[in-house]
Amino acid sequence: MLFGCASGIPLGIFCAIKRDSFFDHILRVVSMVGVSLPNFWLAILLVQLFSQNLGWLPSHGIGGIQYWILPVVAGSLAGIGSNARMTRSAVLETVKADYITTARAKGQTERKVISAHMLPNAMITIVSTLSGQFANLVGGSVVLETVFSFPGIGMYLMNAVSNRDYPVIRSCVLILALFAAVMVLLTDLIYAYLDPRIKAQYVVEKH
Amino acid sequence: MKKILACILTVAMMVALTACGSGGKELENTQQEAQAETEEAAKDEMKDEEIGSDVLEEAGNEYVADHITIGVAAINTLNPLEKSVFHGMYEVYECLFNFDGVGGEMYAVLADDTKGAFGGYDHEEGSSDYTVYICDNIYDHAGNHITGSDVAFSYNYRNENAANSWPAFESVEAVDDTSVIFHFNRELTGVGDLATYFYDVFIVSEEAFNNSESKLINDMCGTGPYKFVSYVDGSNLELVKNEDYWQTDLSKKKFWANANVESITYDIIAEASQQIIALQSGEADLIDGIKPTYVDQLTADGSYSAYGYNSNMIMCALPNCSSASICSNESFRKAIFYAIDNDAVATAYNGEVEVAHTFGIDKFSDYDESWNHGDDYTTKVDQGLVDQYLQEAGYNGEEIPPRAH
Fold first, then answer.
1. What is the ipTM of this complex?
2. Buried-most residue among A25, B204, B283, B352 (CB within 10 A)?
3. Which chain A residues have a beta carbon less than 8 Å from that of B277?
4. Do B81 and B157 meet the contact criterion of CB atoms below 8 Å apart?
5. Do B23 and A52 touch (CB under 8 A)?
6. Residues in Cβ contact with A24 at an 8 Å cutoff, skipping those fewer than 6 apart
7. How far apart are CA B69 and CA B71, in angstroms?
């Protein structure tokens, strides 16, 4: 999730700033591919390339940092693509806004315009997609952990399903649902933090 | 723009296909080179440091490694008192008796075959009690002396807690340190009765069981040739050779108790394709239970060898005869069984299986060869009878999706 945000959001901003450039076209196509590829298929391709053919990374299991690289990349590529596309369109919506023109007219640096004016206003849209991504990531981890033999809750759930271990299945589903609910709650709280208008709706006026 | 997009998609597809398909000759060459380098390095190391057989024993073109990694699809449980198909359990735990492969006789493991009229046990005809004698020099990996009370504990605990019940079993009573009496509710005269009870329970020390925080679910303490080192649920199990293995009589020590390698790591690799990759990348030395469909692919050029072993295991379809099931109707059941083509099923298994004509198999000492002849509804395919039984069952042609467990 962190990897997806740390990579996808800057890429989206870059695409928006360099709109219709060669890099913008490339990144749009690549992000589309990233969103479209099933993560388990991508995982197998990555394993074949980096583990079997090149021998650079372990194909499965746990251990050092090298064991995390392929699962993280396979699990986050869709998030990177999604974040990049969403950030790009959200930033583009703010580019032509009056307050951006005003900021530039005031002589602020382009970096300041992006970080202080464009991005905060675009973040609402981006944050909205993150909670949905978290649910996808949790669902996808069930498959990815099985592919990479990564002993997490996803693999535990899959084994429980195979063994018809109903108490474990119920517990795992409950925990995952709880995580998703907490993420939705956090998203709503972040909305209020990012947008004073939303926060204002919940502030009780003191008389 | 469309041209650029088409070019990018083409490149992406080429990269994907290259990743999928380039594991052929280049990989083999790389592996052969890597293997040659490894062997050369091992030989040099032996020469330089004069390391003996404890590291690498050369025997012609073969060598014995001091550590192997075995890939397995799953380790469902380490609980010795729960039925498990994980082969690593048999490295750590032992039963009273065992069987010699296909068509073999029952032989004593923890039981003392020098005592008793039947090589480890006594039984009087007509009686439902069986007296089993165990060796008096059995110690587990924690140093606990295994006695009759431990055998009684293992059996009685298993009987009280296991999901599948033993219809004929009542209890086991310890007579003294080296003998126990099995109480059944009938004499064991059925096919496989002895196997069911004498070869189905790993014997554990009651003290080791009680001392284990997880009650031997996350750790292991048995009497076998390997002992437990560590276990990460869903990831791996590490075993090391038990230098103090209790059975020192070489005439009684079976090949599986030799402990040829110093340590074994069982790596859990759930995905079948990942098992192959682990084998090809050298992360696993052996895959236990590889899918038959991969065997030809791996062994085609002689780079890998597949060890197949015969099994007496019978796979069969047992209909759900409860009142809620459509199979409660006998005619319908017969229609189903007359429609199943066992020869076609055997063909679908790449000829790895053969059609069985009886539940009784030559693993059992009282097996009768005549059982393996003749056809009945379980082996015969007859479309005419299928139609006849469906008609008798009142089948109206509705689609019935099969559900299998």
1. 0.70
2. B204
3. 47-48, 51-52, 59
4. yes
5. yes
6. A15, A18, A88
7. 7
Chain B residues interacting with chain A (CB cutoff of 8 angstroms): 1, 4-5, 8-9, 12, 16, 19-20, 22-23, 26-27, 30, 74, 76, 232-236, 267-271, 273-274, 277-278, 280-281, 283
Task: Please state, in angstroms and rounded to a whole number, the distance separating the CA atoms of residues A145 and A148.
Answer: 5
CA distance B207 to B72: 30
CA distances from B379 to B144, B318, B341, B352, B359 (A): 50, 14, 8, 18, 12
CA dist B275 and B348 (Å) reads 22
∠ Cα B354 B359 B360 (to 5°): 100
Tokens matching residue B63: 């060598």
pLDDT of residue B70: 94
Contact B73, B169 (CB under 8 A): no
Residue B125 — φ and ψ, nearest 5°?
-60, 135
In this structure, which long-range contacts are made by residues B211-215, counting pairs with CB atoms below 8 Å and at least 24 apart in sequence?
Answer: B211/B142, B215/B79
Give the pLDDT confidence of B201-257 residue by residue, as tens digits: 899 999 999 999 888 988 999 999 999 999 988 889 999 999 999 988 878 777 778
Using the 8-state DSSP alphabet, how is residue B134 labeled? Answer: B
CA–CA separation, A121 and A93 (whole Å): 9
The DSSP bridge pattern shows strands B97-99 and B57-59 to be unpaired
pLDDT for position B3: 62
